[in-house]
User: Fold FAD:protein FMN transferase from Sphingomonas hylomeconis.
Amino acid sequence: MRIALPAQIDGSAFASHDPAAPIVALDGLTMGTSWRVLFVPPRGADTGVVQRAIVTRLAGLVAEMSHWDSGSILARFNRAAAGTWTTLPPDFAHVMAAGLRSAALSEGAFDPAIGRLVDLWGFGPPGAMPAPDAAEIAAARAASGWQRLDFDPAARRLRQPGGVALDLSGIAKGHAVDALADVLRASGVRHALVEVGGELAGFGIRPDGDPWWVDLEAPPGADLPPLRVALHGLAAATSGDYARGAHNLDPRTGRPAAHGVVSVSVLHASAMEADAWASALTVLGPGGITLADRMGLAARIVTVTGGAMREHLSAALTAML
Assistant:
């Protein structure tokens, strides 16, 4: 068993630590997946109020950024006429800014504007589709791409150039994790573990004095030593093809990524950033470790070649072990 620890410990977590406190679990459905929180409630807290705040927050995010809800702000942007400017609410603008930043830094390995390609390959709302031919892929790529977008972050405005379809599925779940962590903190919670669709974030400590331990996902049958992470002021996101098949598209080619990558995990202070970079590194493949090192990202890439699995760790993650 390998253990990954954060570089810093929050001393205030121990000041508010109560070894006799209970752990409350809440869960539900959102974004086509599930959410779950484990938290230590403040004395006298009404957990029903906390749950309603969580449900309301998640519903607001879906109404803004769902690729599947035809009434969402994102869906309306995708249908907007060429040249139309859309004023984005703060959450949407925050995610958009992060997505465009990741797109630039990854040279397009992450792209928030590939909704046409996602639908073409049968991973979007239209459902299963026949494998597209080269002409269909070329047409979808021509109508896609983050570089076609004009974004004014100060005014929170995004311009539809014509035909671009956003898909924020590679970053929105991570933002939802961060948002729920903020909801808990605003409710007076100082110790919690948050999960949305497999993306996680933890802060504070458990009543028993341990951090919130999570094991990084590994493909079934992988002969790799377990890697356990202390989510203390940290988030973890994992992207992989072993559960859903080759659903990670390379925006630069318009086709499924083909580097033998089966799993990528990223640790970051922000679940949103971890989510986006897990998506980008899945596309970049083993060579993505070089970018992870340049960015100071704690990342693990698992590849399979000739039936043999291999693990690639970034310098930042190695330093945490």
The longest strand covers residues 261-268. Residues 76-159 form a domain with the T-fold fold (CATH 1.10.3980.10).
